[in-house]
Specification:
CATH superfamily of the largest domain: Aldehyde Dehydrogenase, Chain A, domain 1
Structural class: alpha/beta
CATH topology of the largest domain: Aldehyde Dehydrogenase, Chain A, domain 1
Pathway: Amino-acid degradation; L-proline degradation into L-glutamate; L-glutamate from L-proline: step 2/2
Domain Aldehyde dehydrogenase: 56-511
Bound molecules: nicotinamide-adenine-dinucleotide, 5-oxo-L-norvaline
Strand order of the largest sheet: 14-17-18-13-12-20-21
Number of strands: 23
Number of helices: 16
Strand content: 15-25%
Family: Belongs to the aldehyde dehydrogenase family.
InterPro entries: Ald_DH/histidinol_DH, Ald_DH_C, Ald_DH_CS_CYS, Ald_DH_N, Aldehyde_DH_dom, P5CDH/ALDH4A1, Proline_metab_enzyme
Catalytic activity: L-glutamate 5-semialdehyde + NAD(+) + H2O = L-glutamate + NADH + 2 H(+)
Largest sheet: 7 strands, mixed
């Protein structure tokens, strides 16, 4: 602590820029896109402030143009991971002892760098690496990331301010120490903001970190590294490694100083990691904190009173923005028989109006899915639906990977509420609809609750308040983020803290005080001002 109790700037959500024709942000981002797309970069490991080039390189290609190389990155071997761990531990003493307001200033500066000089670059990198449209890049790589950083600084100061009461003669105080050891951050491909936030939130609280980004996001992760460096994150505080995820994870989890994991990705990977941590539990100096946000099978259920146009818009945006590659994306829908035909016709009209192609053409609403593995998986589910008698492709169903990994937005209608795509996370632009009898509303709510192992997001549409109340109660445990008359995507930091339970994660709500509390270990200090000198109670005298 410096010589004062400091108030941090009150955070306000970063306004989303329009990118309309003629706006400076449109020109800047397109210029950055062109420049970056046509010049290759070479991304090293960042260990203890050093750039390490192992020579074991992998090429990076945009999903929408997979033969076009935009750069290479260097894979680590086990020795690099050991060095990253020791680098983090060496950096820990100074970083953990830096006054919190100095750490806050670094991340506030990072937010301002993204809002200003790096905005076009981080958005363009996200368009290239993850094939996001400019709007999807803006709400993620610029706005959500800026919000994570600014709001987390506020939550950090709220945590430090929270202090216990003290009786006369005593002064109780709490220190929120960083964890003893280092944090391991493993991040997914789909949000540049999540990739930055998982290491940053732990580090902001005084921890040091080994960060392993997704192979498919390294290109935009490089911009995050540049921003953190320019903002003043010291050497060794965040060490960035890529390579075989199993080797990296096994090496990290074998360290006695492993103190916590901040994971976002698929459910099966997180469960495996949890098991490995359990198997190693006798080796650790402290019980590791395990924080993981994982998969979803997010629903929309419409009551017979819902307005078809509103439900259709929620499906079109909630299922297909960013090709359905949001953990929150609507992927199973329950429509009442009385309005299903009207709703589906409106969705079809929307889908048929979507333009698909490169994100560089800003009129495209749909771009490519992340990689060939995802493309092939999605194509196989679509092909199976074409064969199955209890499913029908209502719209879409085409795919083409000749230039990029393009999957047409696809709506499957099934007569079986347990059909495979009603409960399996596909993570792509495929949504499955089940039509229920209007008088089966209560049973359909039970179906929504019991069909999937996940509990991430969900939405109910109704104009009837009793139905909304019934759904809110019946679906209490099947979504960590529950939306009424809105699509189930698009959570905003500070407004809709995000996370789910059941197989969707530990629900530690990214971008909230609850998440930051996982990265500290409180120490209570009781100081007695004048110590007693007689063991007897007053009434024993
Ligand atoms: N709940 C949320 O907040 C949230 C947010 C974003 C994404 N997600 C989920 O993430 C998934 C999509 O992201 P993805 O495709 O990058 O996920 P993924 O599980 O394939 O990869 C996530 C990270 O884990 C690493 N990894 C993969 N296999 C590993 C292993 N065996 N051991 C250790 N690490 C391993 C990857 O390299 C990557 O860094 C979806 O399931 C989605 O629902 C959840
Ligand atoms: N925060 C995002 C989801 C993040 C996961 O992919 C949303 O609410 O749509």
């Amino acid at each position: 602590m410096g010589k004062g109790f400091f108030n941090v700037p009150a955070p306000v959500n970063e306004p989303v820029k329009s990118y309309a024709p003629g706006t400076p942000e449109r020109e800047a981002t397109l210029a950055a896109y062109k420049e970056m797309f046509n010049n290759k970069i070479d991304v090293p490991l960042y260990i203890n402030g050093e750039e390490i080039r192992t020579g074991n390189t992998v090429t990076m290609t945009p999903p929408h143009d997979h033969q076009h190389v935009v750069g290479t990155y260097h894979n680590a071997d086990k020795n690099h991971i050991d060095t990253a761990i020791s680098g983090a531990l060496e950096a820990r003493t100074k970083w953990a002892n830096l006054p919190w307001e100095q750490r806050a200033a670094i991340f506030l500066k990072a937010a301002d760098l993204i809002a200003g000089p790096y905005r076009a670059k981080i958005n363009a990198a996200t368009m290239i690496a993850q094939s996001k449209t400019v709007h999807q890049a803006e709400i993620d790589a610029a706005c959500e990331l800026i919000d994570f950083l600014r709001f987390n600084v506020k939550y950090m100061s709220d945590i430090y301010k929270e202090q216990p009461a003290s009786n006369p003669g005593v002064w109780n105080r709490v220190e929120h120490r960083p964890l003893e050891g280092f944090i391991y951050a493993i991040t997914p491909f789909n949000f540049t903001a999540i990739a930055a936030n998982l290491p940053a939130s732990a580090v902001m609280m005084g921890n040091v970190c080994v960060w392993k980004p997704s192979d498919s996001q390294i290109y935009s992760a490089k911009v995050i590294v540049d921003i953190f460096k320019e903002a003043g994150v010291p050497d060794g505080v965040i060490n960035v490694v890529y390579g075989d995820p199993v080797m990296i994870t096994d090496t990290v989890l074998a360290s006695p100083d492993f103190a916590g994991i901040h994971f976002t990705g698929s459910t099966h990977v997180f469960k495996d990691i949890w098991k490995k941590i359990g198997n190693n539990i006798h080796n650790y100096k402290t019980y590791p904190k395990i924080v993981g946000e994982t998969g979803g099978k997010d629903f929309i259920i419409a009551h017979p009173s819902a307005k078809p146009q509103q439900v259709a818009t929620a499906i079109s945006r909630g299922a297909f923005e960013f090709q359905g590659q949001k953990c929150s994306a609507a992927s199973r829908v329950y429509l009442p028989k009385s309005t299903a035909a009207e709703t589906l016709a409106l969705v079809k009209k929307d889908v048929e109006s979507f333009k698909m192609g490169s994100p560089e053409d800003l009129s495209n609403f749909i771009t490519a899915v992340i990689h060939e593995g995802s493309f092939d998986k999605l194509a196989s589910y679509i092909d199976q639906a074409k064969k199955d008698t209890d499913a029908e492709i209502f719209v879409g169903g085409g795919y083409d990977k000749s230039k990029g990994y393009f999957i047409e937005p696809t709506v499957i209608v099934t007569t079986d509420p347990q059909y495979t795509t009603m409960h399996t996370e596909l993570f792509g632009p495929v949504v499955t609809v089940y039509i229920y009898e209007d008088n089966n509303w209560a049973d359909t709510l039970k179906l929504v609750d019991s069909t999937s192992e996940y509990a991430l997001t969900g939405a109910v549409f109704s104009q009837c308040r009793y139905a909304l109340d019934e759904a809110t109660k019946a679906l209490e445990n099947c979504a960590g983020n529950f939306y009424i008359n809105d699509k189930p995507t698009g959570a905003v930091v500070g407004q809709q803290p995000f996370g789910g339970a059941r197989a969707s994660g530990t629900n530690d709500k990214a971008g909230s005080i609850l998440n930051l509390l996982r990265w500290v270990s409180p120490r209570l200090i009781k100081e007695t001002l004048v110590s007693p000198e007689d063991y007897r109670y007053p009434f024993l005298g």
